[in-house]
Amino acid sequence: MADVRTWRIPGRVNLIGEHLDYSGGPALPFAIDRGLTLKARARDDDTVNVWSDGRKASFTVGESTDDWAALVAGVVRAVPGARGADLVVESDLPVGAGLSSSAALTCGVASALDELGSLGLSRMDVAKASQQAEHETSGAPTGLMDQLAVLHGRAGHAVLVDCATDPPSVREVPIDVEADGLALVVIVTGASHEHGTSGYADRRRECEEAAALLGLDHLAEAGPDAILRIEDETLKARTRHVITETARVRGALRAVESGAWTQLGTMLTASHASLRDDFQVSCAELDVAVDAALEAGALGARMTGGGFGGSAVALVPQDRVRPVRELVEQRYDSVGWPAPDIFVVHPSDGARLEA
Ligand code: GAF
């Protein structure tokens, strides 16, 4: 019987730099202390068995499926040389919460297939196979930020992912909000979030259209004057988000590096306003969570991830975490929404082989 290898793959929170990866811009995500455990064992045939949440799916290497394991089958197809395997997935990461449960699953499966078959893939190869599986399975033309955060995360660090180059560059950035009495709080709104059917693809198309009008390969290359050169109000607003968000990431990076938390908070909140008003990817549940967190004492708060539901992140003095939780819950309750899941996260290690 082949050895069982155990992988731990985290989810991620994006601190700032939203909807920039596919436009050639920067993002500053970090891996979190919630994620997936994947147990993997090589088989000597071409069958892949997957167990998760009390369910089992089986398929042959190269096959597509349309059941819950479709994403796993997509990864097996995207990893050249993949062989049969038994895979058991356990998760403490809420699914569909904008915390990259899909990237954790796809990167975990690709990493396991690589290791079981001694395929010699780099982390960038794993990230790209994972992205390909996501594109083919969900139809959402996502960027590479999530995969790179999940793979390159490191405890006590954020991951600066700069998509100005292909492949993107990745740099670890130390971050320690707790030393200064602060916490990073995630609010899982419970509002549904599905990039395959949301406006994600529309936003990407709009950014590409704006870049083409400006004669650029990628919209994040645009200078401030670009807004004056676009007449269409929608494309102008999308461009304004990309330009201002790119500048905010640069500012946030300086704030993180110097521990200027009040400034960081201001940039997080400005990022939310831009995503809500210019990029139009927020929703009522996210806006209520952000407003309540700020009202209860957060230094800053914003939606995180692709939006249209999912989660918000707030930078909160430790003695205000409870008031933030109570006010968000109260606001949700007052409009009849289910209670959100609210928890503190810590920048954590990326995907790793545990045993
Ligand atoms: C989703 C995508 F998967 C990422 O690539 C990124 O575009 C993000 O939305 C928005 O910043 O998580």
Automatic annotation (TrEMBL):
Gene3D superfamilies: 3.30.230.10, GHMP kinase, C-terminal domain. It comes from the Bacteria. The keyword Lipid biosynthesis does not apply. GO terms for biological process: galactose metabolic process. Residues 74-153 form the GHMP kinase N-terminal domain. Belongs to the GHMP kinase family. GalK subfamily. This is Galactokinase. The gene is galK.
